[in-house]
Amino acid sequence: DLRLYFDDRADELTELAATVRVLDANQAALELYEIESVDEFTTRKSSIFTERSHDVFLEELTLIADGAVRFSVEQHHTSVTGRDIIIELHFLVPDEYRDTYERVNVAGVDVTERRRAEDATARLLAEKELLLRESHHRVKNNLTMIRSLLSLQARSSVDSDCGAVLEQAAARVQSMITLYEVLFGSDGVHELNLNEYLCTFIHELVGQFSSIIDVRTVLEIEDIVLNARTIAPLGILINEIITNSLKHAFADSANPEIRVTAQRHGSEVTIVCSDNGPGIPENITPEQSASFGLQLIWLLADQIGASMSLSRTDGTRYTVKFPV
Questions:
Q1: Euclidean distance between CA atoms 149 and 155, whole angstroms
Q2: Which of 287-314 are b and which e, b meaning 16 or more Cβ less than 10 Å from the residue's Cβ?
Q3: From CA 185, how far away is CA 190, in angstroms rounded?
Q4: pLDDT digit string, tens, across residues 248-299
Q5: Superfamily for 190-324?
């Protein structure tokens, strides 16, 4: 292997590079390297083709050893005044020299400014991503404080109804906290895997009721990537549905179960949340219910452009369908 051979013989690679001669060059090449004649490519070679270009020179040798007659590389050179140059070199071996490689035509393109612009853009994007993550982190911390205050106030409330309302509000905030936690754990902050998000926060939500009721959860959620603007209200919506089941569906149930499925069919996602309780009473509807939670479910569905349906057969079943 040529690369392995020269890894232990850097001096030989330097000596080999010194044997390369530039026989001709156009005026544009001379101006790029700030020299006056082709001979200066030889006499001032060490200042133009520095050691940092040797790795690419070895890549060129490897390509030649493999029989390549047309190839391109990018190298870092230096003009005779010390100016850094990033250049794309396009090599072509003429037909009459393809046996010996004694002559190679090289066309160079100065890409220095383009690479600097790309590097600057990459740095700006990295800084923006860092600031965005910091912003999300601060929001999450603020939400955690709000949830803690709501829970503290709920526990100290002498009015049980008021305490229940505060605990419900704390649970809604917790679903948003989970969203931010999953955002931090993912590669980006704009899109999330629905399976990862829902499984995480549903287990947390059911765990909050574990001292009161032992509920079996069945989660069949496909790996569906959704943008954060959709998944945030969707999480609160599902939080409302599951919380209602945990609080009201299993008073007389021997084997309580909550099931959540999510599937994608083309450009539409269908999520079904169901329990095996007695079913929500017929007289309770989103239009007539005084329950803010039930009204909130439909409001959030409208926010993400979803259709909602409610079934009371064999328990309570909510079906949410929305476009992606």
A1: 10
A2: eeeeeebbebbbebbebbebebebeeee
A3: 12
A4: 899 878 899 999 999 999 999 999 999 999 888 888 877 666 677 788 899 9
A5: Histidine kinase-like ATPase, C-terminal domain (3.30.565.10)
Summarised one tens digit per residue, pLDDT across range 78-121 is 999 999 999 999 999 999 999 888 899 999 999 999 999 999 99
**Owner of token pair 């544009």:** 28
In tens, the pLDDT along 20-48 reads: 889 999 999 999 999 999 999 888 888 88
For the chain, state the CA radius of gyration.
Answer: 33
Q: Full-prediction pTM beyond 0.85?
A: no
CA end-to-end distance (rounded Å), the chain = 51
Q: Please, what sign has the CA dihedral across residues 197, 182, 136, 192?
A: negative
Show the tokens assigned to 166: 């505060």
The H or E element containing residue 273 is strand 268-275
DSSP 8-state secondary structure symbol assigned to residue 267: T
Q: Which CATH class is domain 2-110?
A: alpha beta
